[in-house]
Amino acid sequence: MVVQIEDSQLVKKYIQGDERAIEALINRHNSRLTGFIYSKVGDRELTEDIFQDTFMKVIRTLKRGAYNEEGKFLPWVMRIAHNLVIDHFRKHNRMPMYNSKESYNIFSLLGDDKLNAEKQLIKEQIDSDLLRMIKELPEDQQEVLEMRIYKDMSFKEISDNTGVSINTALGRMRYALINLRKLVEANNIVLTN
Amino acid sequence: MEKLYTKDQNKTKLVKAKSETIQFLLSYSKSLNITEVDGLQFESNLN
C-alpha cells in the first residue's frame, strides 16, 4: 500500500529545509497545473514559461516564510498561475493606439521631450533617493548594478572586472533589482516622474 | 458503429511540464537563499 503524504506535510517539510518535498509537490501537481495553464493560453512553450514562473514564486514565498497555511496548497498555486496568465495577456494587449480620424492631433505623437523645471526637480529627487537605496544593497550587488547602469558595462566586462562568472553577475544584477524594489516598498518611496 | 478514436495520438497526450523545467526549478530552489537583516529580507542566489 502506498501512503501519500499530504500537501500540507510536504510544505512543512520543505520550509524546514527538505528539498525533496518541493520535488514531490511539483511532480504531484505537474499535469494538473500544466493542463490548467494550457487551457487558458493554448501554447506549449508559453505554458512551460508560466508553469516555471508559478513555481519560482511558490518557492520564493515558501522560503520567505510568507505562505499562509489557511488555504490549500493547490488552489493557492492555481491562483498564482491564473494571475500570471492575466499578467501575460495584459502585457501583450498593451498596444499604442493612434486615432486616424480627422480630429487626429499630431501633438499627441510629437512633443518636446525635455523635462520642465518641476519635473527636473522631481527627477533629481528620484536620482538621489535611488542612490541612497543602492548604498543599502549588499556590496557585491551594488558593484554589479553600478557597473551595469552607471558605467554601461556589458555583463562580460563586469565578469572580467569582478572575477566572477557571467551567470553570477547576472544573478547579482537580478537580486540587486529585486532588493531595490523591496527597499522602495519598505521606505514608501514613489519613483515616478 | 465505428469507434470514435482519434488518429493523432499527440492531441490526446497528457500535458505535462518538461523534465528540464522541473530540474531548473529544483536547482533554483536549492540555490535560493533568503537572509533577514533588520526586518528586511534579502534574496541571494548561490551559484
Automatic annotation (TrEMBL), chain A:
One of its GO terms (biological process) is DNA-templated transcription initiation. Residues 129-168 form the RNA polymerase sigma factor 70 region 4 type domain. One of its GO terms (molecular function) is sigma factor activity. Residues 25-94 form the RNA polymerase sigma-70 region domain. It comes from the Bacteria. Pfam families: Sigma70_r2, Sigma70_r4_2. Keywords: DNA-binding, Sigma factor, Transcription, Transcription regulation. InterPro entries: RNA_pol_sigma-70-like, RNA_pol_sigma-70_dom, RNA_pol_sigma70_r2, RNA_pol_sigma70_r4_t2, RNA_pol_sigma_r2, RNA_pol_sigma_r3/r4-like, WH-like_DNA-bd_sf. The keyword Membrane does not apply. Belongs to the sigma-70 factor family. ECF subfamily. This is RNA polymerase sigma-70 factor (ECF subfamily).
UniProtKB/TrEMBL annotation, chain B:
This is Uncharacterized protein.
